[in-house]
Amino acid sequence: MGNRGMEELIPLINKLQDAFSSIGQSCNLDLPQIAVVGGQSAGKSSVLENFVGRDFLPRGSGIVTRRPLILQLVNNIAEYAEFLHCKGKKFVDFDEVRAEIEAETDRITGSNKGISPIPINLRVYSPNVLNLTLIDLPGMTKVAVGDQPPDIEHQIRDMLLQFITKESCLILAVTPANTDLANSDALKIAKEVDPQGLRTIGVITKLDLMDEGTDAKDILENKLLPLRRGYIGVVNRSQKDIDGKKDIRAALAAERKFFLSHPAYRHMADRMGTSHLQRTLNQQLTNHIRDTLPGLRSKLQSQLLSLEKEVEEYKNFRPDDPTRKTKALLQMVQQFGVDFEKCIEGSGDQVDTNELSGGARINRIFHERFPFELVKIVFDEKELRREISHAIKNVHGVRQVKTGLFTPDLAFEVIVKKQIVKLKTPCLKCIDLVIQELINTVRQCTNKLNSYPRLREETERIVTTHIREREGKTKDQVCYQDDNSIVIRKGWLTLHLSIMKGGSKEYWFVLTAESLSWYKDEEEKEKKYMLPLDNLKLRDVEKGFMSTKHIFAIFNIEQRNVYKDFRQIELACDSQEDVDSWKASFLRAGVYPEKDQVETEEAAPAETFSMDPQLERQVETIRNLVDSYIGIVNKSIRDLMPKTIMHIMINNAKDFIHSELLAYLYSSGDQNSLMEESADQAQRREEMLRMYHALKEALHLIGDITASTVSTPLPPPVNDSWIPESSPTPQHRPPPAATQPPNRPPVARGPTPGPPVNPTQAFGAPLNPSPAFGAPPIPSRPVPPGGAFNSHQDPFSAPPQIPSRPARVPPGVPSRRPPGAPSHRPTIIRPAEPSLLD
């Protein structure tokens, strides 16, 4: 990594984390990061404090870290800290940083040792740090302490898995050396999500606290439980040192002295310690970010494309623009009509697979629920035969001595009409069910108007009111059809009332099998009243003095008012024949005279036990005819009811929404208040715009980094213990194509473990990177006389038959290109990052 572009990778990810954290979303992006995991008191906090060189993390017994801490270390001349939730405030005193972490933790989790997955973002600027980003996670525990919930172990485990399960996350597994490595909580959970150890970096703490005669040499040499990226040992301050405020710089010096003086670690001292750990994490995180950049760019682009269409309408959005409000109102009303029609007709773009809705539920009412309600109507056989018998006798009246020879049609008509009345209840119930489904459909379609609450309320109110109006007309039509089919008599009658109540007045009366209605005139447009026939009887009324009318009365046998506050109403005709005719009509409707009913009740027991055979035959005949006729009526009603409801109610509601709803909305109130945007919609729009701009900025940053980064071969993994310490790293210039051996590696190998080598010191001046390695090799040229080195040879002019040369050049020997060497010769450098590792 020999260019500035690679140095900016970690700050780039920091900017992305801040951008998405500030808008409260992660945008479903797995940003490259390092998560620090380990058991309680494993030394995680001490390692992080050693990186910064300051005491700034909360300490104490039990669980201290109760929220993830995203720690961003930034190399800077000035030293201070910033929190994302305290924008603009710089913390120079790191004791205040600790207090702010504790306060922010308690603000979310409370003071009962609970935990929360909501992270705290802390950025530390310091000249003593390398660019690095780590996430300090709560330490794993086994037993709940104090007010902690009983499942605290599982809560912490679930939180850790949320971070380390992602492939873009490196795992820094911290384990104390004074415990058995096989029982390490950190390595155990890392093994679950990273079984090959490709993402795990082992850190061994408390090496100075191991029992005398024991050491962690096999662990640190990656022999015991090998990891691809190896282990690094550190020595932190003891609790006594922390309590005594021992300076961290002095602690780092003591750590260095410990590794150099310990017989088991002195041969690997250059690869141990906090400083080496920080450099290693910097290098590995940088490499990891570089590897994941292509995938990150693809995710950002796909997210940006998914927002493009929706954000387009918000780019020049002005909430108070009247033109926009008018346009939005027209579009939403039109869309509401389309959605309503699609829900009813079943042609919607989004088909619900969980339950029936809209037109499907109405269809179910028509073809399942309504027929079932009709089938539920059961006739009482004994009662039906009794009614038929009474009807036959009442039709013959006083003229019969025995039952007539022929079955009377009038008795059949009366019985059939009375049975048809029973079909009214399921018809009205069907209408009620359809009404409810229509209202539910309206509410479902108005969900898309949530952005404008007032518009939704008005739309729902107007359409629902119209549907209720059509409900009344639909029920009137159904009852009118019933009335038309069972009208018994029509004619003029005089309604007698007291002078105080209006006196006598003529009306047009319509008698059906169910009710007695009277209208202003025979056109039957202005209905004055409708009187149900239930529990009504007839009685004779004597003519009044000087009266030329013949009068009869209707009263309720339960002593209830019949009309307004009248217990009975008196009806008058011009002649006695008209009175008898109306009484006969009432008889057909099931309204009997008062005395006749008494006689019928007294005669009922005798008729029950003795029946004329001829009467019995006629009863059976009418019974069969009624059964057949009712079957035909049921079939007709099952066919007509859906058509009537569709025509009067459903189709009319669709036409109303398309043609009249907009006019009703304009007349309902002020358009500005009608199109006032909801707070949730405004917040959603702002978040979407912030997300959109954050994605564009992220893509811009990634594009700049990629454009300024020279493509070089990736170095091998950090775990290079398979390379002997004394083995040099060969560097070769590509030989001519004609002499290229088949097994010759085309590129230079990575750096060997140990202290970093500065290319500037090794070669005297920074070397320019070579052109693309995939280009054809340039034939070597002979070196002019006098251009060879006196004390050593140029490593780049080595002949092909020499397999390798030492990678390290003595610092005292200059390494310059011979004066006579051509300046355009290709240069190959090792992929090292001196600017980050110095």
Q: Please tally the β strands and state the result.
A: 15
User: What helical percentage do the residues reach?
Assistant: 40-55%
Structural class of the secondary structure composition? alpha/beta
Q: Which blocks of ≥5 consecutive residues have pLDDT under 50?
A: 1-5, 596-610, 707-715, 722-838
Based on Cα principal axes, name the global outline: elongated
Keywords: Cytoplasm, Endocytosis, GTP-binding, Hydrolase, Microtubule, Motor protein, Nucleotide-binding
Subcellular location: Cytoplasm
GO molecular function: GTP binding; GTPase activity; microtubule binding
Family: Belongs to the TRAFAC class dynamin-like GTPase superfamily. Dynamin/Fzo/YdjA family.
Could you please describe the fold and organization of this structure?
- It is a single chain.
- The protein is α/β, with parallel strands linked by helices and 838 residues long.
- Helices cover 45% and strands 11% of the residues.
- The chain has helices spanning 4-7, 9-22, 44-52, 94-109, 152-164, 185-193, 217-220, 239-243, 248-261, 274-312, 322-345, 359-375, 381-396, 409-421, 424-445, 453-485, 576-588, 594-609, 613-659, 661-668, 671-674, 679-707, 759-763, 834-837, and strands at 33-38, 69-75, 80-83, 120-126, 132-136, 169-176, 200-205, 231-233, 487-496, 505-512, 515-519, 527-532, 536-541, 550-556, 568-573.
- The strands form two sheets. An eight-stranded mixed β-sheet has the order 3-4-2-5-1-6-7-8, with helices on both faces.
- Helix 2 runs antiparallel to helix 22, helix 14 (409-421) crosses helix 19 (613-659) and helix 15 packs antiparallel against helix 16.
- The longest helix is centred in the C-terminal third of the chain and has 47 residues, at 613-659.
- The radius of gyration is 48 Å and the shape is elongated.
- The model is unreliable at 1-5, 596-610, 707-715 and 722-838 (pLDDT under 50).
